[in-house]
Hints:
heterodimer, A: mainly alpha, Cytochrome Bc1 Complex, Chain C, 16 helices, B: alpha+beta, Rieske Iron-sulfur Protein, 6-stranded antiparallel beta sheet
Amino acid sequence: MKNRINTLYKWIDDRVHLRDLVEFMGKKYVPIHEHSIWYYFGGVSLFLFIIQVVTGILLLLYYKGSEELAFESIQFIMSKVEFGWLIRSIHSWAANLFVGAAVIHMFSVYFTKAYRKPREITWLTGMFMLFLGMGFGFSGYLLPWNELAFFATKVGTDIPVIGKPIMILMRGGEDVTGATLSRMFGFHVAIFPGLFVLFLSIHLLLVQRQGMSEPIEFEDSPPDGSQRTMPFFPNFLLRDLLLWLLILNVLAVLAVLFPWELGQKADLFASAPVGIKPEWYFLFMFQTLKYIPAQVFFIDGEVLGVLLFGFAGLLWMIVPFWDRKSSAGQQNRLVNYVGIFVVLYILLFTILGYIA
Amino acid sequence: MNDTVATGNDQGKRDFLKYALGGTLLAWVVSVVYPLIAYLKPPKQAEVEVSSVKVGKIVDIPKDSGQIVKFGTKPVILVRKADGELRAFSATCTHLDCTVQFRSDMEVIWCACHNGKYDLNGRNISGPPPRPLEEFRVMVQNDDVIISKNV
């Protein structure tokens, strides 16, 4: 058996020179320090993304993306298909955990300034993937065609500033209808996954090529052997896999004990239900819109809100380019204060959104 | 004549080729991209223009209540005040497009999405809505309640 594997390895190695790759993997080390735990969240996000691809493909086998059939097809999946309830619940739960893990990953990279030179492109591709992740959440939310999703999509596609042509492009018409469902379905299962895989490939390639980022303090310490590292292969990878196994178990427990609800089928001529809320990761923005008055000076309140969030998001995304100090290996407290403010703001408005 | 130095004549030929090829490339890109963008734009569908809708008998509409009425493809809210007066407005919130509802406890038209409030004349009185609701005309003919566009 071992002989056969060796023969196969040699056969491939002769053609594609696997040895270089194996040598490269063997030289990859993960730094060990007090912030090492944050290295795991990128891998966790990746694992949850893989879960989404697998469960998403399974759901595609029964889902029907039309106004008349979408809700019924998910009812069918949840009540008739064996373990359909499990697959759908895992898809919904993993979607939320994915956004959660990606947000933690993003903040940990921000606070450890791992985005600094030379990892600007890794940061940018990561931010694009986070936005795409939110796009996945938003487009996937409509697919069951239930009441909550219908109004969430109405609000989400009526965002001012972006303009009417874009709204019509997203809705497939003037209003949210079955045409919108078809579009969101297309975004969710074809356009977004394609773009995501592109950014993910660049992101992972860069992580392999450049290695793990180390905190600034760690970089400065003298190379006297006091810096501890762990081989990526197999030590770190095995730890990664163990964590992934744990997460899969957590997912299964969540999906079984708290199955995802389907709600009421969307009715185009019903009032918005009481207590309507978007997904938790949009809640802080939703709550802010509630507090901004209709008119601030001469601007519509909602326009102002969207402009502010857009501007803040842009500043956040280009942090590697305005934080020159970190790239030069110096501490930059301003970045920390901005980050702490953003975390507190999001926490406060999310909590307000839940209790209001 | 040096190979690397082009005469005026050669330069002219080169420029001509540059613009001809560049122009062709541009035309090619446009002819590929334009159909794609045009495809994404949903076609205008012929909609039956609705000018009035019969809701039902006035005796069936309780006082101090509101209901959503299908007006073509748009929702309209019909409110019957406590004193029996009928009013109708577009049910689409002027803030972010949600469908509003009548709240008898507050005597307002209310939007659940962002807590916007309109009085029973359709005026935005609190919360984020930037404009009043568009009003529709309500008529009662032989006990039938009819909503029509306000022209």
